[in-house]
Design brief:
Belongs to the eukaryotic GSH synthase family. The protein is of the alpha+beta class and 533 residues long. The protein has 17 helices and 21 strands. Strands 3, 5, 6, 7, 17, 18, 19 and 20 form an 8-stranded mixed sheet that branches. The longest helix has 22 residues.
Length: 533
């Protein structure tokens, strides 16, 4: 346990006078609704109605130096994850025990094995990832370059299309485009340094709404008479950055008539975040059409063309952007798994490809924290040291000496750790005294190899107002903790990286007493970092 609970300074003096608070909360709710910081209700779902997404009224303080560190290290993490995803031996060795007992990860790995044995057809495009895919025939790419926007008359797009296709013409089947989000909390136990919570390689959300929340908090500070403070709200272009990656992947694919497909859940609650990506793509590159399909749609109606083009409802798919497929409940039957395999076999560029998906598992994250692991992928010792500094303690629960030591540590001091499975989407981790109970229960079972043990991060508290749908007109001050996400885009193949950028951020904040803080999972609220020295 942390010896002392630290508090970050308030950004503005709180509490606000009640009349001022009521007025600013009313304005903030309407601003959120009118600017798409909204979601569909899970309790009263309607496709025709939105409610504002939970938000923190005043931006939360975040150490400026640690924010800058998170931005800087994203380029290294992009490189690291790109190389990990392309290392078959490392993925196989890391997951060999997990896939025996975790059915979901095992199913993903079998698809990976199948695609590998058949020979890679596609580039990978993932969230982290964009695996860029497809063997793009030279003649096909050149034809696409000529046709790209003849009708639209946009000359620079035609050139960009030609150049994008040319970069990977030597080995297009190996090219990858990665979109990832690395999440951090400030750790009071390590002199207020950031520690990585996880790295996301599929369906990394809230670039869309998060970009608007930055603008929202600029408005709020101005309304409260603090225009001089706007300089401490960092610029955020996450939405444009991720959409640029998707457009680049579309150009690399080489067919100007092909579409970008968002693979979505059966019911989409986080609709605004997804649609912002779709609408931004159209704004940035008007000739690109985006379609939305579910795994079941793909199972029922998708097929492969003679060159392994992915075809659905009369469309050829250039890029697949996965906003579903990251948890078992998305696969209702074997046919949805067959659809995932069909997509992996196709020419389409996937975000993520199966190898990027596996690279983002908790077990791979834990394996990377082992002595000597990072050095396999990063030759620069300075880069290695920077990554090591952000790692929290990560421990395997395999049946070996180190695994037994980790089991005993969890039993002796459960509140020091978090128990994590190979799942995304929030609400899956085990905390506190329940860690001891869970570890004791699985101690002699192979099930334990599907989990990892992570040292618990103890972030400093901030104080503020959290505004939620259905909440009081006069919200109460609460203690909160925040988690920073940094988005990255990387393009390259197994031999080289040609594009590597950090593109933006998001901040999620939860009540300090809550264990998890996923906004889509209903446990957290959207926020912005206010940088302090």
């Amino acid at each position: 346990m942390a010896e002392e609970i630290k508090h970050l300074p308030m950004v503005v003096p709180l509490p606000l006078p009640e009349a001022q608070l009521v007025e600013i909360v009313e304005k903030s709710k309407d601003w959120a609704l009118m600017h798409g910081a909204a979601m569909r209700s899970k309790t009263n779902f309607s496709e025709d109605a939105l409610q504002f997404a939970p938000f923190v009224l005043i931006p939360s303080a975040f150490p400026r130096k640690e924010f800058a560190k998170a931005l800087e290290i994203q380029l290294i993490l992009n490189e690291l994850m790109h190389k990990v995803a392309h290392d078959r031996r490392f993925l196989t060795e890391s997951l060999k025990e997990t896939i025996k007992v975790d059915e979901f990860t095992g199913n993903l790995f079998r698809i990976y094995e199948t695609v590998h044995s058949e020979g890679l057809t596609q580039f990978g495009y993932g969230s982290v990832r964009f695996d860029v895919g497809g063997i793009v025939q030279k003649a096909h790419a050149d034809l696409g370059a000529l046709l790209l926007l003849e009708a639209g008359g946009v000359q620079h797009d035609r050139v960009g299309f030609r150049l994008a296709g040319a970069v990977f013409r030597g080995h297009p089947e190996r090219a990858s485009l990665g979109l990832l989000r690395s999440d951090y909390m400030v750790n009071s136990a390590s002199t207020d340094k950031i520690k990585q919570v996880e790295i996301n390689t599929i369906a990394s959300s809230f670039a869309g709404i998060g970009t608007n929340i930055t603008v929202f908090h600029r408005y709020i500070l101005q309304e409260l008479g603090h225009s001089e403070m706007l300089k401490n709200l960092p610029e955020n272009n996450a939405l444009e950055g991720l959409c640029s990656g998707m457009i680049e992947a579309w150009k690399i694919y080489g067919n100007p008539k092909a579409v970008i497909m968002f693979l979505i859940e059966d019911i989409t609650y986080n609709i605004c975040d997804q649609r912002f990506h779709e609408f931004k793509i159209r704004e940035m590159c008007p000739q690109v059409r985006v379609i939305r399909r579910t795994l079941t749609d793909m199972a029922d109606r998708a097929s492969l063309g003679p060159k392994k083009q992915l075809l659905i409802d009369g469309c050829e798919v250039a890029v697949i952007y996965f906003r579903a497929g990251y948890e078992p409940g998305h696969y209702h039957s074997q046919k949805e798994w067959d659809a995932r395999l069909l997509m992996e076999r196709s020419l389409a560029i996937k975000s993520p490809s199966i190898h990027y998906h596996l690279a983002g598992t908790k077990k791979v994250q834990q394996t990377l924290a082992k002595p000597g692991a990072l050095e396999q992928f990063l030759s620069d010792p300075v880069k290695v040291e920077k990554v090591k500094q952000i790692f929290a303690g990560l421990y395997s629960l395999d049946f070996d000496e180190l695994g037994e030591q980790a089991i005993q540590m969890a039993i002796d001091d459960p509140e020091r750790f978090v128990l994590k499975p190979q799942r995304e989407g929030g609400g899956n981790n085990v905390y506190g005294l329940e860690v001891r109970d869970a570890v004791k229960k699985m101690k002699d079972s192979e099930e334990r190899t599907a989990w990892i043990l992570m040292e618990r991060i103890h972030p400093p508290l901030s104080t503020g107002y959290m505004v939620r749908p259905g909440g009081s007109k006069v919200p109460q001050l609460v203690d909160m903790v925040s988690e920073l996400g940094i988005f990255g885009v990387v393009i390259g193949d197994a031999e080289k990286i040609t594009y590597n950028k950090q593109v933006g951020h998001m901040l999620r904040t939860k009540v300090a007493t809550a264990n998890e803080g996923g906004v889509a999972a209903g446990l957290g609220a959207l926020d912005s970092p206010y940088l302090i020295d």
